[in-house]
Specification:
The complex is a heterodimer of chains A (511) and B (317). Chain A is α+β, with helices and mostly antiparallel strands and 511 residues long. Chain A has 15 helices and 20 strands. In chain A, strands 5, 6, 12, 13, 14, 15, 16, 17 and 20 form a 9-stranded mixed β-sheet that branches. In chain A, strands 1, 2, 8, 9, 10, 11, 18 and 19 form an 8-stranded mixed β-sheet that branches. In chain A, α3 packs across α4, α3 runs parallel beside α6 and α3 runs parallel beside α12. The radius of gyration of chain A is 27 Å and the shape is elongated. Chain B is built from 11 helices and 8 strands. In chain B, α2 crosses α11. Chain B is globular, with a radius of gyration of 18 Å. Chain B is α/β, with parallel strands linked by helices and 317 residues long. Chain B has an 8-stranded mixed β-sheet with strand order 3-2-1-4-5-8-6-7. Classes of the chains: A alpha+beta (511), B alpha/beta (317). Chain B: One of its GO terms (biological process) is methylation.
Chain lengths: 511, 317
């Protein structure tokens, strides 16, 4: 764009000369351009002139959990609450939504939010709405293996936290953010539409045009990103945020490349009911992949069960009773014995490590509560890992799944997205503090640097888990069991694993 | 015609309280100290002898047929030519002015915090400078003027290089908020003749390019209202600055065109404080800029051995 400006310079010289004289004369008179009112007046006229054109500071494409978290975070900070934001999402629920009730049937899609995410929600004022709805804090977690060779239990006390996390239905997370933004006087406009095209650097070529009208429009909007929507509207924004998920249209239109692969595995996700309340998060590694049982509150739990695509297809279609039976087997005696509560002969191998035993290490193995019935539909998702090579360029930035998609093994996906939203809103606030154009790439790269490091680390850990547990091979099983025992007894190691998984963002092992 | 700085390992800098008391050294004592540094004079009639090309200034040179500069000024002709040649690249974040773009948020953070405190403005406001008239002397392509305008100030940007002013005007017109900036191809001296006054006078990375720093500071002071603010940043005349800003930034890293800086024209913080004091400006705060090569970011620090910035207020007489 600068080059274009330079090229156009010659053509513009005559116009500039006139302008400059005008300014210098003014300067001599000692009045002039120092009139802010005049500028907003001018701007208003331009807007009126082109009343089809809507201009915003930020356009958030995708009003899902992460996009709304960004809006809430911007609305909550003094330096950003004045911003004029457009939220583009074809989901009609954004405009006219139905209040959720605590007694509503549970949804299959849940997220395990970490303490870091909880504090973000508290800071923006959205957590109170979650507390009015169904949610379940958990303090304990048990991870074991079908071979019966090892298990480990985590407890929030090990890291001096009150909770390890909280399981919340995605619709509750989303609704709490919508409730939160409604209570503010933040200037937001919902566009119930889809993004069809995006122009990031148009304009400069029209700068030299001599037609006054054209010049006015293009010079005031020309530096902005232009978005065309499926309802025919065009909007302009200083910054476009792609919060539009794993198949991000913004990412595609901006030309960001991704790196990633599919695991030849699917996850079956559903909600189940117990006869008693479940208060612990459970994860058992089976030959085909892990099954997780997460407490949701009101005797409900959520199941995330990884298996090969064929099995996943069968389990989605089988009758409910058979599915419940399979699930109970998978969480109990199916595929292999319970790990011994005492440490088998391996206990001696680790005796030298017991100097600093964490509290939960002495807790015995437990069996998860029985599932009595299915409480939602069963959904199947392919597992994949995808990461955008860049998160930001001039006037465009990606957050959440648009920047990185991970399999649901540790329920980390949405936490990474919330971390992105918070980091981006802070970088925008810092930019505003020092008067930088919020679409400036040097500023956006700061966000990218900060989040890429954290996200890649988390993805590498999750990918490593995936690989380590998707192989059913004798010696490896024993090694895995050894790691479990080690993890159960070596306190610093375990603390690091938990605190990283709970969003403290330190490097495991090296901190 | 701001220019740039930097050293790549790290610059750092300082807070006046460590180096000298905020009240400043006694002028006489400071003058003695300065004798060891260099024989500069603050008398306009005797230009520093070591700058042979500084004489006729702009009186009958470059500006004549192109620009409106016809008054004496403290500018050096060669410096003007140097900057005119790279003016078009001002807004290219990867161009010759990249170091300035990278450093910009850091120097703006210093300006924001000192001016908010001095003028009792709300630091949580997105437009804290609303109501302040600020002049950016040596505005170049407008890299500093535009953020100041976004922060709410009524900004005038002046530069002796006409090409810079054209670039700045073109770029500022892209955004309605910055299009209110008044750009003018003129000099601080000429503004003084026009009896212009500003709440704050800011001149960053300029003083090391002027022929007569003392005279230049007097002009800046004359533009400042009583109890108004004057902010100046420059490069220290230290061996480290030589190693980093010239050898490092110009010759090794090629961040800056060779010849951008002349070490002998740099001022030490003590010299700057002294000449400002003689111009009735009391330096209240000083900070250095430190570059972290790992994060590639600048931050404020109290090490003023390379790049530094000072905030002073004009005495009420």
């Amino acid at each position: 764009m600068n080059r274009v400006i330079a090229r156009k310079l010659a053509a513009n010289v005559s116009r500039l000369k006139v302008r400059q004289e005008y300014f210098c004369t003014d300067a001599a008179a000692g009045v002039s351009g120092f009139n802010r009112g005049q500028s907003s007046q001018e701007q208003k006229e331009k807007n009126d002139f082109a009343n089809n054109i809507q201009q915003y500071d930020i356009a958030i494409v995708g009003g899902g959990m992460v996009g709304m978290a960004l809006a809430c975070s911007l609305a909550s900070m003094p330096l950003t609450k004045h911003l004029n934001v457009a939220i583009i999402d074809s989901n009609p629920a954004l405009g006219s939504r139905v209040r959720l009730k605590k007694g509503d049937p549970p949804d299959a899609r849940v997220s395990t939010v970490t303490p870091a995410t909880i504090s973000l929600f508290k800071d923006v004022g959205a957590w109170q709405y979650i507390e009015q709805n169904r949610h379940a804090y958990f303090h304990k977690m048990q991870v074991w293996d079908y071979t019966g060779l090892g298990y480990t239990r985590y407890n929030a006390r090990d890291i001096n936290k009150e909770v390890l996390g909280c399981v919340v239905e995605n619709k509750v997370l989303h609704d709490s953010l919508l409730s939160c933004i409604e209570t503010t006087d933040f200037q937001k406009t919902f566009h119930p539409s889809r993004l069809t095209s995006m122009t990031l650097h148009q304009s400069s070529s029209s700068m030299g045009m001599d037609s006054t009208l054209l010049k006015t429009t293009s010079s005031s909007l020309g530096h902005l990103a232009k978005l065309e929507l499926s309802d025919g509207k065009s909007i302009f924004a200083k910054l476009v945020v792609g919060a539009d998920g794993g198949k991000s249209r913004v990412r595609e239109l901006a030309g960001f490349k991704t790196t990633g692969w599919n695991y030849s595995q699917n996850a079956v996700i559903c909600t189940v009911e117990h006869s008693v309340e479940n208060r612990c998060a459970w994860q058992r590694f089976l030959p085909a992949g892990p099954i997780a049982l997460l407490p949701m509150g009101n005797n409900f739990s959520n199941i995330v069960w990884t298996m090969n695509p064929k099995e996943a297809g069968n389990r989605k279609l089988m009758n409910e009773d058979d599915f419940v039976k399979d699930t109970n087997a998978a969480l109990d005696y199916g595929y292999g014995p319970h790990p011994k509560s005492s440490l088998l002969e391996m206990g001696d191998m680790f005796s030298w490590l017991r100097g600093d035993v964490t509290l939960s290490a002495t807790e015995g193995f437990e069996v998860p509560p029985k599932v009595v019935k299915l409480a939602s539909e069963r959904m199947v998702f392919p597992l994949s890992l995808k990461h955008a090579n860049d998160y930001a360029s001039k006037r465009v930035v990606l957050i959440g799944d648009a920047a990185h998609t991970v399999h649901p093994l540790a329920g980390q996906g949405v936490n990474m997205g919330f971390g992105d939203a918070l980091a981006l809103s802070r970088v925008i606030a810092e930019g505003i503090a020092v008067g930088i154009d919020i679409g400036e790439v040097t500023m956006l790269k700061k966000y990218e640097e900060e989040r890429k490091r954290t996200n890649i680390m988390m993805m590498a850990i999750l990918d490593g888990f995936q690989k380590a547990y998707s192989v059913d091979f004798g010696p490896l099983n024993i090694l895995r069991a050894a790691v479990f025992h080690g993890a159960n007894y070596i306190s610093p190691l375990k603390r690091n694993i938990i605190s990283y998984a709970s969003g403290d963002q330190r490097l495991p092992l090296f901190s | 015609m701001a220019s740039k700085l930097l050293n790549y390992c790290h610059l750092q800098a300082l807070c006046s309280r460590h180096v000298f008391s905020p009240r400043l050294p006694h002028p006489t004592r400071a003058a003695l100290t300065l004798l060891h540094f260099r024989p500069f004079s603050d008398a306009p009639s005797s230009p520093p002898p070591e700058k042979p090309h500084s004489y006729n200034n702009t009186r009958n040179d470059i500006g004549m047929e192109k620009g409106p500069i016809q008054t004496p000024s403290s500018l050096k002709e060669l410096e003007l030519v140097k900057f005119a040649s790279i003016a078009e690249t001002w807004w290219d974040p990867e161009g010759p002015f990249k170091p300035l773009h990278v450093m910009n948020p850091t120097r703006l953070a210093f300006i924001r915090s000192t001016l908010c405190r001095h003028f009792r403005k709300d630091p949580n406001s997105s437009r804290p400078f609303e109501g302040l008239k600020i002049v950016d002397v040596g505005c170049g392509g407008g890299i500093l003027s535009e953020p100041l305008a976004r922060m709410g100030a009524a900004v005038m940007g002046v530069d002796a290089v006409e090409k810079n002013i054209k670039i700045a005007r073109l770029h500022a017109d892209l955004d309605p908020v910055t299009s209110t900036i008044e750009y003018c191809c003129t000099t601080a001296e000429r503004l003084v003749e026009e009896e212009r006054k500003f709440d704050a006078v800011i001149s960053l990375e300029v003083i090391e390019h002027v022929a007569d720093p003392a005279e230049f500071c007097k002009s800046l002071a004359a533009l400042t209202i009583p109890d108004g603010a004057t902010v100046i940043s420059t490069i220290n005349r230290s061996m480290r600055a030589y190693a980093t800003a010239i050898i490092g930034a110009e010759y090794i890293l090629h961040w800056l065109p060779k010849g951008t800086h002349q070490w002998s024209s740099f001022l030490t913080p003590e010299e700057l404080v002294l000449i400002l004091e003689r111009a009735n400006i009391t330096v209240k705060e000083m900070a250095g800029f430190v570059y972290n090569p790992f994060t590639r970011r600048w931050s404020l620090s109290d090490d003023i051995s390379v790049n530094f910035i000072s905030f002073g207020t004009k005495k009420v007489q």
